[in-house]
Protein 1
Amino acid sequence: MKKLSLFYLLTTLITLCLLAPACDNGPDDKPDFDRQAMLQHYADNLIRPAFSNLRSQTTALKNTWTTFNAAPDSAGLADLQQRWKSACAAWQYANAYNFGPAGESGLRKGLVEEIGTFPANTVKIEEFIAANDVSLNNFNRDTRGFLAIEYLLFKNADLLFNDAGRRGYLNAIIDHLESRVTEVDDAWAAYSIEFVKADGTDVGSSTALLYNEFVRSFESIKNFKVGLPAGKRPGQTMPEPQLVEGYHSGFSLFFLKQHLEAIEDIYYGRTLTGSDGTGFKEYLDFVVGGPELVASTEAQWQKVITALYAVPVDIPLSELIAQGHPSVDALHTELQKHTRFFKSDMSSLLGIAITFSSGDGD
Amino acid sequence: MSNVEVKTSGLTGTAIQTAAGKVSPWLNQNISIAPLAVFRIVFGLLMLGSTIRFWALGWIEDHYIRSTVQFKYYGFEWVKLLPPAGMYALHVGMILGALGIMLGYRYRLSALLFFLTFTYTELIDLTYYLNHYYFVSLISLLLVFLPANRHFSVDAWRNPGLRSITTPRWTILILQFQLAVVYIFAGLAKINYAWLIEAVPLRIWLPANDTLPLIGSLLKWQYAPWLFSWAGMLYDCTIVFWLSLARTRPWAYAAVIVFHAITGLMFQIGVFPVVMIGATLIFFPAGWHERVLDGIWKLIKIILRGFNPTPNPSPEGEGGLTSNKILIQEERRPLILCLKQSLSLFWKRIKPPSPSGEGMGVGLPRLPTILLTAYLLFQLLFPWRYLLYPGNLFWSEEGYRFSWRVMLMEKAGTAIFYVKDGRTGREGVVNNGDFLCAHQEKQMAMQPDMILQFARFLEKYYTENGVNRPAVRAEVYVTLNAKPSRLLIDPNIDLSKIEDDWKHKDWILPYE
């Protein structure tokens, strides 16, 4: 009986194998969606350019810093501030790629936490400076990264001219930023092959990684860049404008726009130079219920963008929030309404796994 | 008219009595115990493997240690998450229980240990509900009462008085019944418009698996979802019959393997396919199982010889483990005694053992019969309770669980909770991720009873954290089978004031 079962099993399997290619090229078949080509496009034309751009920006920041550090003056500071702004803008375009070389691994946290944590912990930073502690040998990720650099470059920046200890700390965190970014950018060269190869939709697959981080990144805009500073959490009794990203420089809205544009680019598979390739949108067009979802997503996204551009640009976001400006509330509401389209609707239609846990079997 | 009725019912009554008179001896007839012994070994082995897998994947940590909120089963709110050491202890208990079941060592205690530790763990968090976990709980409960250790076990080796190569037919039938329940209810649930005519959710799921080896390209074929939907339905509805017939059995078992292998490859369903491939062996004839046991015994002897160059297997050991037919034939006990041992916990005799020792017509003891009948009825009726609720079952999920509805729909939701301060009127938006892991959030966002539990948790949490008389409402958008998402529940109702119960939840918005 055992031998018999085996025999039948093999026969069935062989039949299936024979059937499979035969069914492949029926005349009525829709063209197959090539997930691998989509991943290739993301890797080559979105992700790697995002990291290499971020890298050249942070390297430029470091070089400008070296020049400034040798002879600190106000012209140098203005240069430095401008460099920092461009680098932090480039970072918005890499925020969503917090996996693979940029992801968590052992003690190392993801890049978002390592270099993008906000608000900066100014008290701790001052403590480290006072103690001359430039080791960064601690888990206070809010004392380094872009927003810690921002604090030192924009808040009481003239202290930098005469305080070597302050410059020493800034030197350490700019180094740390540059080396983390360089590491990730270097690692992507090898990782991109692995990335394109893992073309399934299961939980470790590249589509799932990219998608999950895309949603995480979008939600972080809604929750932390707008909602929390605007006092939208239960238990908050008033706005907390100091919690915005870029509080000290006042570039919060600028970064917010860059970040949302990066999210939009990922959805469409659009490159930094604006050429549109195969992305999630094209993938959705291909699946059951996809075109309907694309239509409703685009309609709601239009509202998000309208709300975003309705926020006045001449007043810092933190100011607007402190005033309780209705445009910020409106933006938060539209972002909130958009969540389901990116979150549950999209993963459901694309059949993307969100967690490792087993599902119900049949 | 009434005469006829009386007559009919009288006839029926007699017929039932006659049937019962015939069926009861048949159920109690002694048949080879080999299938039961093999089932015990296979089930124990699979549970051992799956517990170790769960542990090795770090899931004890993920599910039960890094957990802030636990969703409770209705009526089992008293089941609490244990501290980390306790959670690991539960899993050690499971491993020991599974080992004991497999080896037949202190078997009844082991089965009970496994049943309790496994079921307790499952009851901690509704998030992780799976039909096959329910199945494992049921099987391990049944094993507590089945005499599966009377043959080819450490218990039988140590205690010759326990040995038997036969077992009443019902002890094997009940396992077959349980498997039939799983398959047939799963199959009946697939007989619906969406599954058979629209071929959803398979039309959503199959293309996502087009990179699989061998079958990947088949899945891209445009009619594949219909093929798989119909095949799945027919398989579930009928596989038990094909497995029961000698002529079709090899084909049926091949189908079991192929079916579960394919679903195992396509979906993230863990050990379930292997469990079903192992459990369905219970449909094989006794002769096959006896050969399996002989094979295992030969293997054990080879291994023992490997350890000990001068082979000297104790005759006692041989008697306990192999089907030493003559010895056990002589020792064959009256049926009634066999049952007494198997159901010793609830034993109450209605008749003294018949002197013939055959036990035919004695019938099952009263309390066990009642319990067994209740169990069977529960299994047959509970899955139908959804009929008592209005509305679309897939949408409201009232009466969805514990009914063998597996892989039936593609459903996902986004739930946004608003907590309003009763004094200031200020309303805040909850970041679900502050309290829930991704899996919890995903499960909660589409199931009304979990939404309710989370709302009540939020009310409690924010009351303790400075919000006055918090009101909690939720905007929950759910997509079902790739249809555009829409509101699942009334977004204005204060959920924190609602108690969960068996009644219909009228705050669920109708699907149509």
Protein 2
Amino acid sequence: MSYETNDLVTEESSLSERVAAAVVGLNVLSVVMGFAAVFQWTEVESEFFGVSLFNLYGLALVATGLAVIALGVVSRAGLVDTTPDRSAGLLTGGLFGLIGVVTGGLFASQTLGFGVFGWLPIALLFGVGFGVVTVLPREDIGSTLPAGALSIVVGALFLLNVVTTEWEWEPEGFSAAFTGPVVGPVLTIFAGLVCAWAAAKAHEGFGTRGRQAGAYLLVGLNAFGMLGVLLLLILFVAGKGWSRMVEGVKFGLFSEPAFWFQMPGLDQYVVFEIPGVWFYWPFTMNGYSLSKDVMNGVLPSIVGTVWLVIGAVLFAVPLGVGAAVFLTEYAEQGGFTRAVEIATNGLWSTPSIVYGLFGYAFLVPRLGNTTSLLAGQLVLGFMLLPLVLITSREAIKTVPKEYRDASAALGVSQWETIKSVVLPAAMPGVITGVILGVGRIAGETAPILLVATGNLQASRGPQVLTNFHFTSSPPFVANPALLDSISALPYKLYATITAGVVSSDPAFGWATALVLLIVVLSFYAVGIVSRIYFRRKLEQ
Amino acid sequence: MSNAEFKQSEQASEQATDEQSASQSMTVSGESQEQLKDEWTDYQFDGAPKISVEDLDVFYGDDHAIQSVSMDIPKNSVTALIGPSGCGKSTFLRCLNRMNDRINSARVDGSVEIDGEEIYQDGVNLVELRKRVGMVFQAPNPFPKSIRDNIAYGPRKHGDINDGLLDKLLGRAEPEKEDEIVERSLKQAAIWDEVKDRLDDNALGLSGGQQQRLCIGRCLAVDPEVILMDEPASALDPIATAKIEDLIEELSEDYTVVVVTHNMQQAARISDQTAVFLTGGDLVEYGETDQIFENPNSQRVEDYITGKFG
Amino acid sequence: MIGSIDTRVRSARTTVEDMDRGAQFVDGVAVASVLAALAAFLVAPAYTVFPLLAFFGVTAYGWKSHQANTAKLLMFLMTASTIVILGLITVYLVLRSLPIFQAMGLDLLLKTNKPLWSTSEGVYSLVPMMWGTLVTTILAMAIAAPLGVAGALFISEIAPSWAREVIKPGIEILAGVPSIVYGFIGYTIINTYMMEEFKLANFGSLFAAALVIGVMSLPTVVSVAEDAIDSVPESMKSGSLAMGATDWQTIKSVTIPASFSGVSAAVLLGVGRAVGETMAVTVMLPHQQVLPDPIYDVFAGTETLTSLIAGQYGIASGDQMSALFAAGVVLFVTVLGLSIGSQLIEAHMERKLGGSQ
């Protein structure tokens, strides 16, 4: 019953395999070209070797569409060795059916101008037709014919100048128009992916191995696409913000006396001088400036972010780690632990703006009725707490039970065991969790917007350390810096948008975004690297 | 220096300088060298071998897990691989259906032929290979599906049973054929009577011994030619073990069974021939089970079997 | 002889009792002072310092004399504070939103005819914002769920190890990009792009915002789904492969079904992220508290619950402020529900793979 051949060893690549590989390659290339046009790296009007971009898309799609159909036909005719299944399967059928519904519906409603009762049956008819053509024939025809046809039709739209760069379509009911420069590349990407998928199946001779190849191609492209988005994002921000960020950076050498001693006999001091480095980075070392001569910088925001993070960590880490130890080591596994678990997971997914509202209603009135650094630290601490708790619990749980048993068997008390065995072993995990958590709260904007920020025009950051003093009334210790509004990097970036700085000085916004990215991502990088390091160490 | 130690050090230096397989060097060497080598792997039998291994080396990173092993395994018999923990017998077993491909750091050199066809070469269809060479694992690993789905899994994946939604829609489904395969496999695995009334229950609800026989049945449903078993009874109680052992002996009438075990009594009970691996991935002696256990050629094997070593 | 043993036993017993009494004293005073500190902070924040000092004093004494006991007590208090924080958030959100619920009744959540949101008329309906949140979430998850799950599959099952070592940290770093940075890019680049290429009437649309949210919730879905897929035991996969199933068949028929609940929990968490995403939508959407016309026009500019709060907290007071808190309650309840739902699903998965079914 099986269509699998019983050869243990299959032959080296045949002609049809090479054709299939070429089709996959060409399609991936068209997809990349499509994205290039969507992202406006290439002008849609541009020409390559005297052929316009859209005609190039058309040629590629028609050629690969024909090739894919040919691969299917050659396999069906038994001219090459393949192992197709009886049918391409319901999933493939459903996908092509859906494409049929969309195509038919658009055609009937937009080109022919039918109303709902007109286009709906036509759409369904198209859908069922596409689905049946996919499902009923043997797999080699069913998976190539519709894909090839789709590719040829889309290609023809370009070659016959139906879809051009001037083409425009305003669907009823949407306040948007679909224009050629967007629709053309998107259609190309879609048809290219479908075609590449079919060709990948053909490359492995259809059947189970063919389906695996097709699926792996799509899943792999998706993964690398995601990575591409990441790189694009970071490089884009870096490219836009770099020149402003490093503008006016100066550094040089100066010498200072390092050590000296009296030369006996000469009665003179011999002074050794070593060179020092001075460094001036206006963008990160200046505050807000009104004068045109002094560059506007983000120092107060950086200092504000640093203090926010320090406060949140001081609040959340002891609390989180302590709670994690209690839950894992002391508490009976039952209703109470379950409740805490649900509470922490709930806290972890609570939107940051809700924390902001809470701080606004709970902390702000009690801390001087104004936005303040302290309120911001506490709210961010509340946000950090569940993350520290969850990661610490996981780290403590991974400490093997044998360690505890061994320690207990030596007559060591539970608390001593926790202190000297469990906590040290869990420390790497806890540290990594904290670093990643800090990365998250350092970039958080919504909560501090409501409870901490306001002072955008400070020339210097909050002076927390020098502002402590004692008072005669409770609470006896006062620190105005803690109770003042501050600025922070994410808030500064938000303010460039709301205050309209973006339109007058976009580079300032990009540079701020870049500094913020560098700060946050370096926390992440350190966290991830330390986790990898600790894991490697554990595995050795 | 005692005799045994002398032999071991001699053998180590031999291997360092000369990568020739033991069987080859044995045929050309005189009696004195045979004693120095202490390797007795040239087992002769009638008929063509089902599996033929030549100069197989396996490395995990820098770790040399299998050292130049050569052996021929006869058709429709039970071959036991025994040896102390870490001697590489499981690694060797996993080379026979290329399950070592799953481990990134593993590198395999040498040749393994099934029915004269090399399985370590470009273009080998792993699907076809593993259909022919089935495997049963140390711990029972049924899928979290019904008993029926577990058995029918392989045939469905290979298109031997049409069972998909599409087949049902088009009236191509073959419930009778599926029932037949399920019944045959479960009967062969000697578990049919215990589960025939609850084929649609989750397989994870079975006892450990039942789960292991289910896994054997699952393997038989694909109709393999060779069945590899990796300590199939080590996680089971004595009664379940006895059932598995009976089953293995029955299976050898139709299948070539290669079974890894650390239990020497078990090997003696169920196998037709036995291969003894000793530390470092060395195949030291291979021959008729009776001869290995009653009158081994190798001093080290005798030490191992009588419990003086290993 | 007998007498001396008796004394010794008795003296031993008294030390134990003494210790117990001392520890009990520390426990009692510490708990009382923490409760007093909480009460003081609620009523008269300036006086929080007294119970707080008492607490530090007694724990310092306890740490010296009964360290194990005090440590346990401290940790218990830390644990309890987690629940207290969740409780405080709930209480304060609900308390502050009560006035608007009294004023508007259920109209707050159901009113769909105009005016929907008007300070001058004192009418506040959250319907447009709830619709905006729903639309952006659905569109975002249409991007993030399939791509995220596929990405997770690639990382844990398909990728060669070198690719895994690059992509996995890459995705995690993607999760670290602050939402305001996405918002900034969305505002300056995507909104402009949409204006030019899609000829939008508004600067900013639900569609563009959803696109950005989709990219933002992608890493969450990938990481959590990858954990779920990774937790499927290797022996199960080997069992399938050893029968000659291909890797892809194994993924489809063994790995995905076995990790299905974990993967859906990942998607639910992603939904939670998308619902709660604030800054990107705040800067990208034009703040118009109206329903799109027609309702399915995803290119219209409206408002989400989160952007409403972030956009109006500065100018709101009285009923309007209360309405913002009501929006917070809706968000909080939704996300808490999603979180609990995903936990139940994960617990189900553990039971299933544990084999106790």
